[in-house]
Amino acid sequence: MPSMAQGEHKSFVQNSKPNPKSAYSMRQKIAEHRRSLPIASVEKRLIEEVQKNDILIIVGETGSGKTTQLPQFLYNAGFCREGKMIGITQPRRIAAVTVAKRVAEECEVELGQRVGYSIRFDDTTSSSTRLKYMTDGLLLREALLDPHLSRYSVIIVDEAHDRSVHTDVLLALLKKIQRARSKPVGEKTEFGNIASQVQTQTRDANGPQQNGVLKGCQGRKLSPLKLIIMSASLDARVFSEYFGGAKAVHVQGRQFPVDILYTVHPESDYVDAALVTIFQIHFEEKPGDILVFLTGQDEIESVERLVQERLQNIPEDKRKLLPLAIFSALPSEQQMKVFSPAPTGFRKVILATNIAETSITIPGIRYVIDPGFVKARSYDPSKGMESLDVVPASKAQTLQRSGRAGREGPGKSFRLYPEREFEKLEDSTKPEIKRCNLSNIILQLKALGIDDIVGFDFIDKPSRGAIIKALAELHSLGALADDGKLENPAGYQMSRLPLEPVYSKALILANQFNCLEEMLITVAVLSVESIFYDPREKREEARTSRNHFASVEGDHLTYLNVYRESDEFLEKRKAAGSGNNIDKVMKKWCKENYVNSRSLKHARDIYRQIREHVEQIGFNVSSCGNDMLGFRRCLAASFFLKAAQRQLDGTYRALESGEVVHIHPTSVLFRAKPECVIFNELMQTSKKYIKNLTRIDSLWLSELAPHHFKTAE
Ligand code: ADP
Ligand code: MG
């Protein structure tokens, strides 16, 4: 500190109206907040444990500071020397983004400098990044380029209790990588020769790595890798056993009592019950924010609208209720809004998906409303059908949800079902690996040189049926040879593209069909939430005004029309000199055409990124212009596994599974009902619906995928 000259005296006056946003008070507030977190008092001990143990399991109550603080402790303790990084993985994109922003703020650095995040199609990191928050899936992809993850000194697998499929596979892989990194270079490891692995950073994307010895590497040891597994649930045994009795430490949280309240009768409409409860709390309970757990974007947006509507009908002095949404498809500036304190006198009501259960902690919550449901993936390998269904939450989830009300003081949790229903809930959620399509993950394992999938060291083994189904699918797509080996260029190319194998295959085929430009657009649009804006109140109006985009050939060509028209419009406006406010102009165009401007922007971004990937592989992006017949044939060749044929009664039969399916009402082919279609999505709601369709000629199937469809003799 600079010394003050003798006799100099500065007088300070209390700011009559402290400005909470001033840098000084913000900094002080953050420092105080950090010191007050339960994890702060055990910093020294945690660092010692990390130094002593190569694998450490940290279990701590949600909100105790694991995710935001531990990486900073490690950084300060010197774990990032020599340019090494600390990687922190999250199962959810939204957690990686919001936490990285918070930590950058705490460290007073710009996001993307020392602290950054990287998720698919959105990377904010730079060469100075040392604390890298990312999704578990992204780190798996990094391992394809750098099999020893050699830039990391520590990897923290956060939210391990979530048991996402990527987390499970990552744990198994990190176990192997850690072992390999403790061996001297040149020694044989489970991945083959270490020196050859060092070289693989520059390996050719089109083929298996070359076995070579990097000069000067012999005898040198790769630096060891520290592994930290973090989890919110109390049961660390499963992870400890999996890592051969690894040490587990518990970070004591601070939890105030939470009153649990149940409804007397079952609720037939939990959205309505949640709405009533929100206002009941607002009118009758002491100050404190409300957190409501809903199942997805649609539900959240409709509750948000309904709260706003009801607010208009109550006396003005009671209207100080501020609904805020948080879900993954929301732009990140809006996601961050939930963390800001409510304006004076206002009560926030946060409408969240299960992201707010353990991955992110929102300050100020005193009341929780829990309808008891969650949207979960399920998969039936015998039919190849994946679906997203609303199902009852597990006991563990329900307990986590209630706990959110007692972080800063005593709270209340309103469960929207009778107490007897609680007893019927499952104890915990089934790991995702047991309920999802495995083709993507298996292709990645194969690309990492892991051939024996059935014998792979999973924490929980997926079913044999699901593995066989995925292997068969990869074989049909031409990624794997008859013996299940990954050895052809197409298979390697598919494993490199950050897409589901079937979409990667579509791009490879489109390169041969000379319609890569069109397929890139299609895949980009299919990767975003709906490209159309469909407000419930104006559905008909929206449909009519979008008619001019519609193609009689189906949804894919319709999307292409939207994208191309928006491109033409953009070019024209740029030529006309509106380069400066192009965003505004584009938004207006979208609004007039009932196109979702956020999705369109996102699709453009994805298009650009996948285009870079395919160019790196060596593809030339060419367009088929108006040859839509050629493009449809390419769609048929790509998506032949999802073809459906019209039946006499007007329903469709999916050729692969034999399921009876229906065209979804949002498809442009809903009324036309062509004889044969390919589709991208099968969704079970009240019926089994197929979405994103294109009309094809059924004869094309046996012509373009003869290995799969044998022609009738
Ligand atoms: P854990 O990982 O143990 O669940 P976190 O490190 O995520 O805990 O959170 C620690 C604290 O930081 C919590 O009290 C939370 O309220 C606060 N916090 C986290 N993210 C933000 C944010 N974006 N804005 C304000 N506070 C935040
Ligand atoms: Mg956390």
TrEMBL record:
Matches recorded under Pfam families: DEAD, HA2_C, Helicase_C, OB_NTP_bind, WHD_HA2
Protein name, per record: RNA helicase
Protein species of origin: Arabidopsis suecica
Positions of region (Disordered): 1-25
Ranges for domain Helicase C-terminal: 277-449
CDD domains for this protein: DEXHc_DHX33, SF2_C_RHA
Family annotation (PROSITE patterns): HELICASE_ATP_BIND_1 (PS51192), HELICASE_CTER (PS51194)
Cellular component, GO annotation: nucleolus; spliceosomal complex
Entry keywords, A to Z: ATP-binding, Helicase, Hydrolase, mRNA processing, mRNA splicing, Nucleotide-binding, Spliceosome
InterPro entries associated with the record: AAA+_ATPase, DEAD-box_helicase_OB_fold, DEAD/DEAH_box_helicase_dom, HA2_WH, Helicase-assoc_dom, Helicase_ATP-bd, Helicase_C-like
GO molecular function: ATP binding; double-stranded RNA binding; hydrolase activity; RNA helicase activity
Domain of life: Eukaryota
EC class name: hydrolase
Domain Helicase ATP-binding: 47-252
E.C. no: 3.6.4.13
